[in-house]
Design brief:
The complex is a heterodimer. Chain A is of the alpha/beta class. In chain A, 32% of the residues lie in helices and 24% in strands. In chain A, a hairpin with a 2-residue loop joins β1 (7-20) and β2. Chain B is an alpha/beta fold. Chain B folds into 3 domains: 1-108 and 191-246, P-loop containing nucleotide triphosphate hydrolases (Rossmann fold); 120-189, no CATH class; 249-276 and 292-353, no CATH class. Chain B is 31% helix and 22% strand. In chain B, strands 6-7-8-3-9-10-12-11 form an 8-stranded mixed sheet, sandwiched between helices. Chain B has a 4-stranded antiparallel sheet with strand order 2-1-4-5. In chain B, α4 (126-137) crosses α5 (142-155) and α4 (126-137) packs parallel to α7 (174-186). Chain B is globular, with a radius of gyration of 21 Å. The chains are: A alpha/beta, B alpha/beta.
Chain lengths: 322, 355
């Protein structure tokens, strides 16, 4: 990790498990990563890999089973309810479904102002001015949009409202969980561009969770790949996509379709689907589908280690650069 | 594309093998809603050859799904009015009696939907869901139908099909369920498969598996496929031709290579430019399309894309552009008054000359 700055968000050995009947499912099985100030960390993986649970556990919507989450050196894990509520003003979350994450019976200006009202951060004219500023920042006309209800807006506009609400407390960190996956491509592009602009304007630090590899590459400075509750590979975006070292990252990238008929159709390097997290494979969790798996992979869990500057991989047999 | 001299023996309806498999002419599908009439498909014409793969691309509300359901004859009769014609192997689908549709559904045209969990019956074993159409449309007895079901499950890549045939949908993963819906669709060897966003809810690796599977099954069976999707990536490498839809109209249609090499319609270009690409460096600024698609209950006069189009002129706002052919390629159709210059010498200038 880079030595010049201290991380703003630190996740250390995070474990989240759920009870399913008598069984225990480890959705997140001990992951650690840092996010530096002003950075966007992309978190990718297929459904069930634990990426959303990770995001939710960071803000403690999902209670972590063990491990630590710290923002600006302050532990979020272990805080009591009221302390947690206070601490969470600096870390906000944006969800996938923009329509259901807004209260249908409140006006947009009140939805955006709610955090201010709860914390009494601003009242009266000051409060209204902040709301106006936020609505303008996300590209909505405050005079037109403020008085309306969420149902009068399209999905993309509702997502803009969610962003305004998340930013109104001037958070340091924004956790975006599949925030554009419900949107059409033309609207998705609007929102992705908006996120980039707001990040620059407000100096935000982002954890951007998504399954779409092209979307994640577009917004991220670094990308972390998850498989069955563990991190496989973490690297700067351009490096990860150009020189993936983990066989799973390679397989994921080979499956992406590009809008270009001159490029060969994607081919599937992987067969089958991820095994159940209830009874994950021993050793490396990817070994059952890995073309490179050997005996060692079944007995020894590969630790995340650095193979190049800022490029970490959890594999016994990574593809190293020439 | 449609070249079927080799497969003639396979088809009983040999008389019209020379013509297209499917001809849609000036199809208009209108729903009556509390707010007024909504024309979801507005004057669509297209032809599909035997064994051909046509991609229909568009954003939500473009009419792509309504078009595919109209072709299948699946829309509810009440509150839906249709005009125009859909000829499938000589049979008219628009306003066809139920008996006609029953003979076609499953046997000649089959459909794969986006969400396999809602298109499969949750309380019926996989076996009966596959054999249902076999027993209805063929003379197979129960044992033959079961054997066919097992073989179909094997063909769509389901491991240990003899056991899985006894499973219920909830016992399978999303990817496996979609394979089952494909097996059901293929049971009676349809001539046309309508796949409506068949991979949209699936993970990338599973998506690639399903698309590979569809391509290989299609080639084996010489089946035509209409692949409906919002994803230009999915259609780029897996279709012969592409129709781009916007606000109920086909706004551009061409062979896949031609479309990507020299698209004429600004909307097609805007759609492509707003799609993030894995080959672009991180933080590449996307070209978003401002605004949103028009309200189809009160459609704008003129070109429906004009309010969002960088190239729009006064004429675009007044007069809707007709679908016309590119001078250098008669199979390339587009609806635009100010088509993009495609970079080749002497392209589409004549279109502008009509101004």
């Amino acid at each position: 990790m880079s030595a010049e700055s201290t991380p703003l968000l630190t996740v250390n050995d995070l474990v989240v498990s759920f009870k399913k009947g008598r069984q225990v499912v480890q959705a997140v099985a001990g992951i650690s990563f840092d996010v530096f100030e002003g950075e966007t960390l992309g978190l990718v993986g297929e459904s069930g890999c634990g990426k959303s649970t990770t995001g939710r556990a960071i803000v403690r919507i999902e209670e972590p089973t063990s491990g630590e989450v710290a923002v600006e050196g302050r532990q979020l894990t272990g805080l009591g309810r009221s302390e947690l509520r206070k601490a969470r003003t600096s870390i906000q979350m944006i969800f996938q479904d923009p329509v259901s994450s807004l209260n249908p019976r409140r006006r947009v200006k009140d939805i955006v102002a709610e955090p201010l009202d709860i914390w009494k951060t601003a009242e009266g004219a000051e409060r209204d001015a902040i709301v106006r500023e936020m609505l303008e920042a996300v590209g909505l006309d405050p005079d037109v949009a403020g008085e309306r209800f969420p149902r009068e807006f399209s999905g993309g506009q509702c997502q803009r409202i969610s962003i305004a609400r998340a930013l109104v407390m001037k958070p340091k960190v924004l956790i975006c969980d599949e925030m554009v996956s419900a949107l059409d491509v033309s609207v998705q592009a609007q929102i992705l561009n908006l996120v980039e602009d707001l990040k620059a304007k407000y100096g935000l630090t982002l954890v951007f969770i998504a399954h779409d590899l092209a979307v994640v590459k577009n917004v991220s400075d670094r990308v972390a790949v998850m498989y069955l509750g563990r991190l496989c590979e973490v690297a700067p975006s351009d490096d990860l996509y150009a020189l993936p070292a983990h066989p799973y990252t390679q397989a994921l990238l080979s499956a992406v379709v590009e809008p270009d008929p001159e490029k060969a159709a994607s081919h599937v390097a992987l067969t089958g689907e991820p095994p159940s997290p209830i009874n994950p494979p021993s050793g490396c969790r990817f070994r059952t589908r890995c073309p490179k798996a050997e005996e060692r992979c079944a007995t020894e869990v590969p630790e995340l280690r650095e193979i190049a500057p800022r490029h970490q991989v959890a594999c016994h047999f990574p593809t190293l650069r020439a | 594309m449609s070249n079927d001299t080799t497969a003639t023996d396979a088809f009983p309806q040999a008389e019209d093998l020379s013509g297209p498999l499917l001809t849609v002419k000036d199809l208009r599908t209108t729903f009556s809603t509390p707010r007024g009439d909504l024309t979801a498909v507005d004057g669509v014409s297209l032809e599909l050859g035997r064994g051909e793969t046509l991609g229909i691309v568009g954003e939500s509300g473009s009419g792509k799904t309504v078009l595919s359901r109209s072709i299948m004859g699946l829309l509810p009769r009440s509150k839906t009015t249709q005009s125009g014609s859909i000829l499938f192997e000589g049979t008219e689908i628009v306003d066809a009696p139920d008996a006609t549709l029953r003979d076609i559904w499953g046997a000649k045209i089959a459909m794969v939907f986006q969400d396999p969990m809602t298109s499969l019956n949750p309380v019926v074993r996989i076996e009966r869901q596959i054999t249902e159409s076999l027993r209805l449309h063929t003379t197979m007895d129960k044992a033959e139908a079961k054997a066919t079901a097992i073989s179909l499950l094997g063909q769509v890549g389901i491991p240990s099909p003899a056991e899985r045939v006894r499973a219920y949908p909830f016992q399978l993963s999303g990817g496996m369920r979609q394979r089952v819906t494909i097996a059901i669709a293929l049971a009676c060897s349809p001539r046309l498969l309508l796949a409506d966003e068949p991979t949209t809810g699936l993970d990338v690796t599973v998506q690639a598996q399903i698309l590979d599977l569809l391509s290989s099954l299609q080639a084996e069976r010489h089946m035509a496929v209409i692949l409906v999707t919002h994803d230009l990536g999915v259609v780029a490498t897996r279709t012969d031709r592409i129709a781009v839809m916007y606000a109920g109209h086909i706004v551009e249609m061409a062979s896949t290579r031609r479309l990507f090499a020299s698209m004429a319609m600004p909307y097609t270009q805007a759609l492509l430019k707003s799609t993030p690409r894995i080959s672009d460096p991180s933080h590449t600024r996307l070209t978003a399309i401002d605004g949103r698609p028009p309200d189809l209950i009160n459609p704008p006069t003129g070109c429906a894309f004009a309010p969002r189009c960088d190239y729009a002129t006064e004429q675009c706002r007044i007069e809707a552009p007709p679908l016309r052919t590119a001078p250098e390629d008669p199979t390339h159709l587009f609806a635009c008054w100010n088509p993009l210059q495609t970079g080749h010498a002497g392209t589409v200038t004549t279109a502008k000359g009509e101004l």
